[in-house]
């Protein structure tokens, strides 16, 4: 059987996703705070046999650019207004039956017990279709919303995240799969010998457990991450079963793919069970020139200041202090270093100013744009997939739900005809869609040796 690719649809429960122009697009829907919009998108992605819908999330309104929040609200930039994706996931789950749903939640500002309970519940409610995008959060504003003066230092965030994920897995493993008997005759509901206390006392977290919830269908959510820095890649290769990546260059994508796969092997994991998902925005037209017109119309709507407002959030660095018509300064940032490295690489390679990078950021957070007829876009996907850059792709939208509709109606059939993508869902859980092993199998080797973390 030909190696098949996987697909995720990128969303944020807000007017802005990667594209800061999408909400202004005449074709875009505007009911971002009601259920119908997400039900429509969920059904479209399921009709396209997508593996999952992916919800990114940020925990604060943007204030980093010039320390001002009025412009972000006026321009409606990323995360200026969002609703909680865990709740949107439960809503989409009710109107779909196979589509996986990935939800972002931070290890820095929540407690492992609360998170384990939320994602265990979502795995029950979705009948095994949930994934957790593990983030350490990005900005000072998020820290201040949770009562902290400043955001934790980059690598410390990952140290906390390491203990957080371990503790959550201990909690998800605190019930044996067959602990619940629910025997009405004898009146015995569960076997207490198959439910264990966790008693985790760590450097950052303490929790007694067990989780007051039976084992969920996938045992635990599929783990997703997007680390791109040295520390981030190591963390992603150690824990993640799917890794989300942004890099507009084929050589950058290939290098990331090879690097992370080899790190996963170093952690004693099967690299085939660590799926790499670069992302792109498609512009599809009946002809290539119609597609280019759609792209030009969209990109013209994107304003550089909106892009720099979001770049400042993602990097937790105030870019309003620089000359917008000068190249991007050679600085280190405390937010997402990986994404900033891509911006600087582009600025040097193509002699782009900070304003140019702002424009690119507003057009789609540096995501490459695949433009052309459905055949052209399928060709670009096949070339990237066959070129050792990806196991799957995160599709982001220029207008919502229009981009997803066009992609499902015109590009998916092309990929299916080429044998590159499923024609039907074969499994019911997200783990099955992604072709992963069992929840135990995919843990790093050192943890597979510890029984308390195993499903048993
Ligand atoms: C493609 C991509 C998507 C991300 N999505 C989110 C998100 O939704 N919420 C968030 O707080 N951080 C998000 N991040 C930030 C990462 O989770 C991570 O914290 C950040 O990339 C820092 O990692 P690094 O410095 O190791 O690259 C994302 C990063 C990338 C590259």
TrEMBL record:
Keywords, ordered alphabetically: Flavoprotein, FMN, Monooxygenase, Oxidoreductase
Gene3D superfamilies: Luciferase-like domain (3.20.20.30)
Database matches in CDD domains: Nitrilotriacetate_monoxgenase (cd01095)
Domain spans labelled Luciferase-like: 24-384
Keyword Flavoprotein belongs to the record: yes
Stated family: Belongs to the NtaA/SnaA/DszA monooxygenase family.
Record-linked PANTHER family: ALKANESULFONATE MONOOXYGENASE-RELATED, C2H2 FINGER DOMAIN TRANSCRIPTION FACTOR (EUROFUNG)-RELATED
UniProt name for this protein: LLM class flavin-dependent oxidoreductase
Organism: Gordonia hankookensis
């Amino acid at each position: 059987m030909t190696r098949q690719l996987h697909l995720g649809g990128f969303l944020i429960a807000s007017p802005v996703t990667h594209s800061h122009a999408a909400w202004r697009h005449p074709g875009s829907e505007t009911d971002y705070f009601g259920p119908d919009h997400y039900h429509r998108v969920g059904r479209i992605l399921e009709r396209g046999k997508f593996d999952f819908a992916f919800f990114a999330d940020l925990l604060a309104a943007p204030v980093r650019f010039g320390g001002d929040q009025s412009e972000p609200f006026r321009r409606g930039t990323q995360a200026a207004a969002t609703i909680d994706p865990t709740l949107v996931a439960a809503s989409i789950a009710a109107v779909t039956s196979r589509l996986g749903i990935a939800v972002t939640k931070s290890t820095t500002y929540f407690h492992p017990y609360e998170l384990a309970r939320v994602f265990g519940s979502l795995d029950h409610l979705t009948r095994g279709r949930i994934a957790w995008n593990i983030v350490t959060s990005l900005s000072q504003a998020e820290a201040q919303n949770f009562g902290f003066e400043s955001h934790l230092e980059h690598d410390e965030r990952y140290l906390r995240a390491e203990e957080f994920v371990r503790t959550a897995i201990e909690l998800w493993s605190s019930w044996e799969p067959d602990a619940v008997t629910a025997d009405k005759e004898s009146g015995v509901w569960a076997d207490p010998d198959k439910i264990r206390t966790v008693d985790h006392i760590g450097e950052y977290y303490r929790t007694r457990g067990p989780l007051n919830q039976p084992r969920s269908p996938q045992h635990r959510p599929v783990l997703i991450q997007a680390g791109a820095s040295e520390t981030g890649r190591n963390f992603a290769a150690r824990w993640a079963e799917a890794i989300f990546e942004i890099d507009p260059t084929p050589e950058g994508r290939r290098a990331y793919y090879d690097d992370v796969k080899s790190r996963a092997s170093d952690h004693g994991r099967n690299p085939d069970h660590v799926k790499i998902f670069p992302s792109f925005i498609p512009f599809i037209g009946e002809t290539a020139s119609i597609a280019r017109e759609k792209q030009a119309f969209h990109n013209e709507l994107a304003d550089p200041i909106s892009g720099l407002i979001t770049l400042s959030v993602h990097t937790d660095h105030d870019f309003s202090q620089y000359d917008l018509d000068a190249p991007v300064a050679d600085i280190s940032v405390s937010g997402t270093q990986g994404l900033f490295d891509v911006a600087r690489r582009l600025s040097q390679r193509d002699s782009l100013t900070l304003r140019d990078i702002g424009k690119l950021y507003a057009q789609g957070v540096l995501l490459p744009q695949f433009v052309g007829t459905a055949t052209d876009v399928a060709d670009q996907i096949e070339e990237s997939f066959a070129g050792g850059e990806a196991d799957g792709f995160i599709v982001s939208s220029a207008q919502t739900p229009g981009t997803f509709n066009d992609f499902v109606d015109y590009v998916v059939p092309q990929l299916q005809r080429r044998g590159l993508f499923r024609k039907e869902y074969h499994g019911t859980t997200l783990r099955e869609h992604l072709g992963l092993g069992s929840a135990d199998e995919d843990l790093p080797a050192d943890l597979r040796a510890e029984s308390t973390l195993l499903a048993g």
